[in-house]
Amino acid sequence: MVKENALEAAKKIKMLVFDCDGVMTDGSITYDENGIEYKTFNAKDGHGIVRMNRSGFITAIITARNNGTVRHRAKNLNFTELYQGHQYKLPALEELLQKYNLTYENVSYMGDDLPDICILEKVGLACCPADAVKEVLDVCNFKSAFGGGKGAVRELCDFILEAQGIKKEYIVAEGPAAKQI
Fold first, then answer.
1. Rounded CA gap, 105 and 65, in Å?
2. Alpha carbon separation from 71 to 3, 48, 61, 77, 92 (Å, rounded)
3. Per residue in 85-132, pLDDT tens?
4. Which domains does the chain possess?
5. pTM (2 d.p.)
6. Interaxial angle between packed helices 152-163 and 43-54, expressed in degrees from 0 to 180 and rounded to the nearest 10
7. Distance between CA atoms of 181 and 178, rounded to whole angstroms?
8. Per-residue DSSP letters for 107-149?
9. Contact call for residues 45 and 158 (beta carbons, < 8 A)
10. How far lies 6's CA from each of 13, 26, 51, 83, in Å?
11. Rounded distance between C-alpha atoms, residue 10 and residue 8, angstroms
């Protein structure tokens, strides 16, 4: 569900920031017998990120967990920034705002759980997957029809590109990222 103010907010976005678990993944955390953590990502979501990068947007992940799988995914998709191990996420976002000389209204943030609310209440486009917790759903002006790790990121990317009049057909993945989306 998209609130009326979401379209206007999307026109001002210059940076997309994402939580990882529950947004870029379905929230499952899988361990093998050696304690190695595994995550599953959605290829369509990945293509959305590649298209945003190619369209000149800043892309970032801010996550409480510290995981090599996330680092690998961020590198494959050419995320502009990656902040891992941030239990409290707002200082990381404030650092990004300062670094890129942006304001909160230039930011879209997608989160799914209580630690994300401190950011969602401040940004121009507050976003969440369909399966976010109720408190997050109540704060967001863009609620994806898809769950975390199931196309929510892609839907948001497409929404922002469309709001800003950027044609989908002109943005295609090339090079190594195209093979690993």
1. 26
2. 33, 18, 10, 10, 16
3. 998 999 999 999 999 999 999 999 999 999 999 999 999 999 999 999
4. 4-180 (3.40.50.1000)
5. 0.91
6. 30
7. 6
8. EEEE--SGGGHHHHTTSSEEEE-TTS-HHHHHH-SEE-SS-TT
9. no
10. 11, 24, 20, 26
11. 5
Helices within 11-116 (DSSP H only): 43-54, 68-76, 90-100
Residue type, 39: K
Task: Quote the tokens at residue 142.
Answer: 């863009």
Residues with Cβ within 8 Å of 18's Cβ and at least 6 positions away in sequence, in order, are: 24, 59, 60, 61, 62, 109, 110, 111, 153
